[in-house]
Amino acid sequence: MSLLSAKRLEKHYGHHIVLENLNFSVEQGEFVTLVGASGCGKTTFLKMLLGTQAISKGTLLLDGQPIPNEPGPDRGVVFQKYSVFPHLTVLGNVMMADELHSAKLLGKTFGATRRRAIENANARIDEVGLGHALHKYPHELSGGMQQRLAIAQALMMRPRILLLDEPFGALDPGIRQDMHALITRLWQEQQLTIFMITHDLKEAFALGTRLWVFDKTRHDPQAPNAYGATITYDLPLGQHTDEALSAQAFSQQLAERGVATHTQETLL
Ligand SMILES: Nc1ncnc2c1ncn2[C@@H]1O[C@H](COP(=O)(O)OP(=O)(O)OP(=O)(O)O)[C@@H](O)[C@H]1O
After folding, report:
1. Which value does ipTM take for this structure?
2. Which of these, 133, 151, 200, 207, has the minimum number of CB atoms within 10 Å of its CB?
3. Which residue minimizes the CA distance to atom 3 of ligand 1?
4. Same domain, residue pair 50 and 173
5. Which part of the chain is the ABC transporter domain (predicted)?
6. Does residue 134 fall inside a structural domain?
7. The domain containing residue 3 runs over which residues?
8. Which mutation among 35, 38, 40, 230 tests ligand 1's pocket best, with the greatest number of atoms within 8 A of CB?
9. Which residues of 218-257 are buried (b: 16+ CB within 10 A; e: fewer)?
């Protein structure tokens, strides 16, 4: 059985059809990169996987069961910005992920349970290379360090699925390379299944094992919200290809077919 699967999945906001006819199955350990024009519904898709947006039609299954319509410890998420709490230290931020979860089950944690949570938080913080910054606040961290913190927070509950919404979009190219190495290491070590939105096709090729392009196949100029985007390309990505060249060739192919994504602007 696939980890995640969808059949004729749709998402509407009122009369606005954002996504339609999504069909896929994803196995554990895949790294799916998602590209598509701004506003085509990529974040909405991640929110359905996270459980903060309900599906409108069709099926979306996790382990063969309808995906719960609330976030759970099996799914972690990192957004481009503002994922961390500004008034909490690095340790406080990562502990918060545990506290939010435990509070739902047991109320506040004490004693041995809390000590275990602190040990767990320290381990996650070390994993992302922030062990030296345990008691710093987010405003004292660089952009890259803040995203490392957001990743540690997302991994605190040991999720199987990690959802990344343009997590490196605001970072400088050099820092991005470091973050690519980090996310690749965590993906491999923790056997995560990752869905990552990016506007950078080179990044999509460099990190993913599979690339999805979201686009509309039907348009009505009189009613722009009548049709939603779907997955128009589902491309397996080789691990040993020249990512930059492959990304450029694919970008040209998209341009020839009139698929508008931001990615072409950066590549062509
Ligand atoms: N909660 C909401 N209620 C109503 N409409 C929404 C809601 N969230 C998103 N939308 C609309 O759904 C469409 C898809 O938005 P979404 O953020 O999923 O796109 P996106 O592909 O992630 O865009 P970007 O690449 O710019 O982040 C947009 O038209 C947006 O305005």
Report:
1. 0.97
2. 133
3. 13
4. yes
5. 4-241
6. yes
7. 1-74+160-177+198-249
8. 40
9. eeeeeeeeebbbbbebeeebeeeeebeebbbebbeebbee
